[in-house]
């Protein structure tokens, strides 16, 4: 039976809210960046520090007593975790008696789907996978019984409070050829992967962060902003979206810009906050409006709206 609530009751429905380890993120999203009723999407170019931020947030949430499920689709988090988790745990004074971080590696879209109870099939038509002219077709073959779904078993047994997926983009990029005729399949896969996370939120009240790759418009060298790979699928699904950017100038390489790309009732790209990376991870960096010109380019200032943050 479906619960039917009055709209006021529905609006006040209980939700779980999770704070970030960084005031920069908390400020951008009104103190409620992560919640059990929304997906938080983070994207950026390679080496900008997405995985580092995800591990810092995981360790922070662990120190607050939460259990985290870290879904690694790139297979590279182990090296970063060995280097950084001891640092973060010492910094946040987390204890093994508090939360736990659990990890699962799902490098393919098929293994990701299976983990969430689905069997899918990707068929290539008209060429080899490396051929840009090859067309991919997606089929949903079968659905596992609810009580046999591995993801739900893990979340129940490990009492998961928070899920981090790093990243949504990689298993799709490595499986589906990058050609215009495959954009629909890519969008469908991305929507499917995000949809499973949203269903997990409905069932278990978990918070969710997912990372994405970024793409730059090659036709405009003066536009330094990047768009999130996946386009409308993620923009329709993720209610909070943040872009991480950095500049290659030597004196600014440790500084990261956190841009508000999406938040309900907020103008896109209307706010930016700054952090600095050192040997202890990400730290907040306070920057006054009159100092913005030292950290942002002219095009970034225009994007922000004339220098007001």
Write up what this structure looks like:
The strands form three sheets. Strands 3, 4, 5, 8, 9, 10, 11, 12, 13 and 14 form a ten-stranded mixed β-sheet that branches. This protein has a two-stranded antiparallel sheet with strand order 1-2. It is an alpha/beta fold. Helix 3 packs across helix 4. Helix content is 32%, strand content 26%. The chain is globular, with a radius of gyration of 20 Å. It starts with 6 loop residues before the first helix and ends in a 5-residue tail after the last helix. The mean pLDDT is 88.
List the helices and strands and how they pair.
Elements: H1 7-11, E1 17-18, H2 23-28, E2 34-35, E3 39-44, H3 50-63, E4 68-72, H4 77-92, E5 101-105, H5 109-115, E6 118-125, E7 135-143, H6 150-157, E8 162-166, H7 169-173, H8 183-204, E9 207-216, E10 226-228, H9 232-237, E11 240-245, E12 255-262, E13 272-278, E14 281-285, H10 292-295, H11 298-304
Parallel strand pairs: 3-9, 3-11, 4-5, 4-8, 8-9
Antiparallel strand pairs: 1-2, 6-7, 9-10, 11-12, 12-13, 13-14
User: Main beta sheet: strand number and arrangement?
Assistant: 10 strands, mixed
The number of distinct helices, counting runs of at least 4 residues, comes to 11
The end-to-end span amounts to 47 Å
**Which structural class should the secondary elements be placed in?**
alpha/beta
Shape by Cα distribution: globular
- Residue share in helices? 25-40%
Radius of gyration: 20 Å
CATH 2nd-level architecture: 3-Layer(aba) Sandwich
Spans of at least 5 consecutive residues whose pLDDT stays below 50 are: none
CATH superfamily: P-loop containing nucleotide triphosphate hydrolases
Order of helices and strands: HEHEEHEHEHEEHEHHEEHEEEEHH
CATH topology descriptor: Rossmann fold
